Amino acid sequence: KEYRSSIVKNTVDPVWEEEWEVIIEVARGQILHVNLWDYDQGLADEFLGRISIPVSALVSRAETDLWVNLEEATKGRIRLKTEWFVLSTERCHYEERKREVHGKQLSTAVLLVYIDSCKQLPLSKPSLTKPDPVVEVSITGRNAEESFPVLYTRNPVYEQGFALLVHNPEVDELHVRVYDFKSKFDLGFLRISLADLMRRKGMEYFNQPFKLQKSGVESSITLHIQMLFTKKSCKHKHKLTKDESVDIPNEVANPDILGTEESVVVEDVQQLEVEQVELIEQAADEAVEAGPEDVEVVLTNVEEEAEGREDIIYEDVLVQRTSVKSTNPCVMEAESSGSSAILLSVNYSAPHQVLSVGVHRATHLLQGVSFQLRLSLLPNRPAKRKTSWQSREEETVTWEEEIFFSVTESELREKFLDLSIFERRNLFAKSTMMYRSSYSFKRFQSDDCPKKLSLTLIPVIPDD
C-alpha cells in the first residue's frame, strides 16, 4: 500500500498534517518506508532521503510521536505520529472511536469479507458463453477490492478474503459486484447494510448465501462477513522531542526486543514443533515392530493449485499403528487416548455402486477458529470432496454432512480414503492444512450396517 502527500512549496521545514490508515495483518517482518522528494515541475523529482521503521517497533509502543533522522541524507529529520489499533466487538469502543474521528475521514471499524463461491451465474453477453467471473467488493465512498478471475465457469470458487475500512457503519453499505473479466459484462449485484449487520449476534454472517440482484433466477454468492470495531491499544505511549530524535533500527535481530509476550509465543511454537516430530517418530518406531496386520500406511501429500485444478504430489511416507476393536462388527475405533480424532460413518451400496461417507465431528482440536474437511479416494481419484466451513466449539468441530463417491466394489478394495483438515485462521488468510489421516478399504465388508470410524488425526508440521 502506498500513499502520497500533498506538495508544500518553497520551504525547508514543510508541515503536512495529513493522516492515512492501513490494515496490517502480520506486524512482524513488515517495514514502514517513508521517502522524501523535492518536487520539480516538468523535471525529475530529486531524492532527499528516507526513513525505514519496523512495524513491530511501532506496535510495541502503541502510540508514538517521533523525530526520526533521514537515511541517505546529510541532514534532516521527519516527525512521525503513529497509533496502533486493535479490534473489538464492544459497542462502547465504537462510540468512543466515533467521538475521536468526528469531522475526520477516519475509520471506526474493519469489515472482514471472505468470498467463498458463486453459483448459477448467467452466461456472459453478447457471446452467451461461460464467463470468467470476478467479484468486486467496496464500502460506500471507498476504493474497491477485486478477487482473481476464475476462468470459464458459472460456479466459481474463490476462497479469498479482504479487510475493508469502515468510516460510519450506521450508514455505510457493503457493495458487491460480479462481472465477466473478458467482456466486463455485469453478472450480478448485492448491497448489504452494515447497520443491519451491527444488530446481528457477533456482527457476523457465517457462510451465508445471498441472492444476487440483476442476475439469473438462481444466481447466488456465498460470503462470510464479520465487522469489528477499532480501539486504541492500551500500551505505553512513547514520545520524543526534536532534540531527542533517534535512529530506529531497520530490523529486530534480538528476540528480547519483541517483548515478553511475543517471546513466549515463539518458544511455545518451537516446543509444539518438537512434540509433533517426536509423536511421528514414535508412531513410525511402533509400526516397525508391529505385524503387517497392525500397520496402516498414510501418504502425506502436498497440494498444488494451478490453472483451476488440484495436483497431488506424494512425498514422505508416514507409518501409523492402529488398533481395531472387533466386539461390534459395525463399530471400529482407532486408539486415540484423548488425542485429536475424527468420527465418520462409512457405508457402501453394492446395487448402486456408491460409497457414502458421513462426516460427524472432529474432537480435541486445540487451536483454530474455522475448519473444513477435504476427502479423496486414492489412488487414481485425486479430485477432492469438501465439507462446509464450521467453527470450533470447546475443542470440537461438528459437520453432520454426507459425501458420496461412485466406485465399484472390486475397485473399492484397492483404495483408501485420504482425509485432510484445513483451518482458516481468519477471513482473509489462505487456509492451512492442520491434520491428516487415512482409512484403507482392503478389509472393508459391505453390508447393511454402516461402519462407524474414529480415526486418529496426525498433526501436520508447517514448513519453515
Largest beta-sheet characterization: 6 strands, antiparallel
CA radius of gyration is: 27 Å
Number of helices: 5
Helix content: 10-25%
Structural category is: mainly beta
Mean pLDDT: 77
Q: Which range does the strand content fall in?
A: 35-45%
Set down the secondary structure blueprint.
Elements lengths: L30 E8 L7 E9 H7 L1 E7 L7 E7 L1 E4 L2 H10 L8 E11 L13 E7 L5 E2 L10 E10 L6 E8 L5 E8 H5 L5 E8 L8 E13 L5 E2 L20 H30 L5 E12 L2 E13 L9 E3 L7 E9 L4 E10 L6 E9 L6 E2 L3 E2 L5 E10 L2 H4 L3 E9 L7 E9 L10 E6 L1 E2 L5
Parallel strand pairs: 3-14, 17-26
Antiparallel strand pairs: 1-2, 3-4, 5-13, 6-9, 6-13, 7-8, 7-10, 10-11, 12-13, 15-16, 18-19, 18-26, 19-23, 20-21, 20-22, 20-24, 24-25, 25-27
